[in-house]
Amino acid sequence: DDAQSQGDRERRRRQHAHAEPRHSSRAHGDMRNATLATCALNQWALDFDGNYERIAQSIALAKAQGARYRVGPELETCGYGCEDHFHERDTETHAWEVIGKLCEDKELMADVAVDVGAPATHRGARYNCRVFIVNGEIVFVRPKRALADDGNYREGRWFVAWTRVNETESFALPTSCAMYARGGDGTVPFGDGALEFDDGSLGSETCEELWTPDAPHISLALNGVDVVSNGSGSHHQLRKLDARMNLIKSASGKAGGVYLYSNQRGCDGGRLYYDGCACVAVNGELVAQGKQFDVSDVEVVTATVDLDEVRSHRGAFQSMSIQASNVPRIPFIRVPFRLCDADSTPSAPTTTRPVRFHIPEEEIALGPACWLWDYLRRSGASGYFLPLSGGADSASTAAIVGNMCQLVTKAANDGDETVARDIRRIAQLSDADPIPSAQKLAELIFTTVYLGTDNSSAETRERATALAKEIGASHLSVVIDVVVAAVVGFFVMVTGKTPKFKVDGGSNAENLALQNIQARVRMVLSFLLAQLLPWVRGKNGFLLVLGSANVDEGLRGYMTKYDCSSADVNPIGGISKSDLRSFLRWGANNLGYPTLALVEEAPPTAELEPIREDYVQTDEEDMGMSYDELGVYGRLRKISRLGPVAMYERLSKVEWKHRNLTPREIAEKVKKFFFFYSCNRHKMTTLTPSYHAENYSPDDNRFDQRPFLYNVRWPWQFRRIDELAAKTEAKR
User: Quick check: is 250 catalytic?
Assistant: First the structure.
């Protein structure tokens, strides 16, 4: 009956789940060399067909390279970025249908252990899980124990963490996969455990767990687990990779073992770019590392490791052995399978290698370029449109698009058929047409326009034209004064008042309004041209408008609401001005665009006010603060979590201690920043979706959640700052 069947299943679960490691008694003469595979996949939220194909391709590639185990990214079946779609039952149902389709392919799943990511609901709670499949049979489901709930992540909104450490229980597989359960009764162990094979053991943790103080890999190592894998969904951020790689090396070095790291790579439908870098570490040393940035959809990284080296490493660490002797035991799920090479002459272990890092300038060139390619090919658009002003920000955006064209044409010429198909589809080429050069592709899919007025200079016009030519973009140089004059004329007709610029005796309100109308006209014209230029050229589709406001301008609010910063996407919205200037210098020498050096040398200016002999508008004078100062304010506000008073104290005692500034001057600078930051915060609610690259981004969407209506006078805080400044000066 049902009760007896349930009792039998429970007894079998206990037998499997608490089996002791059997490989520990193997003869020392037996070599335990295992070839293992990790991968970076460009998954897309809710693209179940594409996600399945990429998973299947990675398994086939792993097997072709001799791997007996393959681990993939976090939630790879449905895509990590489904967000509130996780609340929909369909998302989980289709994810398990993907798993069922994998298990259905007997040839693909034969002689390999596969670890895929999927959501799973168990006893009314939804978990972020790893699903282990051996020879096409599902053997274990391991839920995530620690969720990512800070910065860009909101996993606690959709999942719960598994808190029952070292416990497993029976899980009824969804209908689409029940027939593939090992044992044939439709259930598998679910919880905190590890797999025990004939010749080795395997445990896992998921993304955030690597970063936690009480990381599962420590307990797994103390329980004798040979291999720990991590299926991750970790995004790119400038200068972040070293922290991740240090954790990976530490995870395998502190307690010994093999650590496999898998990650998504690409834009899966949001502001983040997941930056791959799948890798394998053994006993604290890296032995294999994949690319951090690439336009290919699938990359498989394999390494052959000697599991007996793990045993030797741990055996020489006496204090670890003592801890291992009394650590709480984890449940082991016994699975008859050989993880190691069966040949009498197994492959030699992969040798160690240094970690490969990109410098920040390379990260800016590569990450946003790959993100833009994913966005373009998945949006259905036929190219990009950029208002190119000849300044640093729009020039940086143009250079990134140019590098995108270089990356994809190289990948296509190197044999990536998926990239080649996408190039032909977007550029509207026939299958018989050869892959164009990077410059020719830019001409086909990238349009730049210089939208000049009487306030624009010949220098910026010439720089914009020269840069567009170097990139290969289809470039227009137009004058928009007639449109601006029409709008101002309409205002004069309605009100009978004629506004003037400040240099001509106008008020601050008049001056700002006249600048803003130029900026907003540029936005309207940009979207008009982006929508109709393909039609003008006899092509189908539309162009996506690119924005080019940097992170510091967003923080300060130094932009017109609904101007050219209002676009479809912005590849530099999370990058600081100082990093962009470094990128321009680097790009002039390394991307083949020498005009970038001229752009970097010019003082930043909006060119919205008339030029006079005694007055030329510049950004930093307009803002009342330098870009370098903005970077400091941004990091202290967001990363160090400092309010006005704490920021004043920190600057006075640390960052600006040796600057030639009085306490009152520092106080005025802090108050000025918080005034403009707060009065312009409303602009962040309409900020163009931007590539996330910096930890002090003011992106209001989910990363930097704060009010947008402030008391901009900050009376209590500013009064306290003034008191502290006066007290400090009195002591001098």
Answer: no
